[in-house]
Amino acid sequence: MTPVLYIVIPCYNEQEVLPITAPQFLAKIHQLTAAGKISESSRILFVNDGSRDRTWEIIRELAASDEHYIGISQSRNRGHQNAVLAGLMEAKDHCDITISIDCDGQDDINAMDAMVEEYLSGSEVVYGVRESRETDTFFKRTTAQGFYKFLSMMGAEVVYNHADYRLISSRVLQEFAKFGEVNLFLRGLVPLVGFKSSSVYYKRAERLAGESHYPLRKMIALAVDGITSLSVKPLHLITGFGVFVAILSFIGVLWALIAALCGNTVAGWASTTCIVCFVSGVQLICLGILGEYIGKIYLEVKHRPRYIISERTWEEEK
Q: What is the pLDDT of residues 237-287, one digit of tens each?
């Protein structure tokens, strides 16, 4: 029996690129169906993440034009990770497999063929991994690769050069639904579910139209979420650093006492100022890291919904 595939596509202010990429996704559905790889019941699920332009209107028009297009709209903008999660949770009870992909056309949709093949061969999760970052600027390439390496150093289990282009079976999604984190970093959470996984490598292209919605500010916020959501190693590091500074301070106190007893003390503010500034800086950095974790705990204990769906295209048809 051929599996039912739902392609989950988060959309935020994508009115320029959506009319270009939507037909490409539909063509891929038809191609895979004709090849006998997926069921005719497969769908393309757009997730409107509180867009301020005509994105939702375009999704509704697409849904009216072809039954393979369906869409849901969040009540407000909640961020890319929450939009992907909303689509996956909406799809998990209606399909056998999902493939999440951005709608900007940068990820190679032809990699879906290999992903489905990997699933048919027994993989429950298939990661789309970039072969290289030649299309990125030097700054973005360096910071992105450094981020993945830093996450690994922090003890987080992530797939190098993998973002959110992946195939996940409904079996895995049923288990993933039990994860209740509010602070989402999907590329780090999915490996925690387990099950057999594999990777498919592809080349990433330039964005087909519109502007990127992931500026440096959002990339840094995602990096902080990834580190603090998946690892407590920063807390261990600042504890160790604090012990190291305390030992140095204790040695400094002994040195000062010995120097005072020997009558070798020299009045001066420079050394005192440097020590005070150093220790104060260390304390503020440590407090900042602790504050990040406390903030995450504060959000988690509230148990607020991670997404709220306000509209569905198939409900409009009733």
A: 766 776 676 666 666 666 666 666 676 655 555 566 567 666 766 776 777
Q: Are residues 89 and 237 in the same domain?
A: no
45 and 140 belong to one structural domain: yes
For residue 47, give its domain range. 5-212+305-316
* CA–centroid distance for 46 within its chain: 18
Q: Which two tokens stand for residue 260?
A: 């005072």
CA distance 184 to 187: 9
Residue 113 located in a structural domain: yes
* Residue 183 confidence class, pLDDT cut points 50, 70, 90: confident
Number of domains in the chain: 2
* Strand ranges across the sheet with 5-11: 197-202, 125-130, 162-169, 97-100, 5-11, 43-48, 69-74, 309-312
Rounded to two decimals, the pTM is 0.71
Token pair belonging to 88: 């996956």
**207 vs 17: CA distance, rounded Å:** 9
pLDDT per residue over 192-219, tens digit each? 888 898 988 888 766 555 555 555 566 6
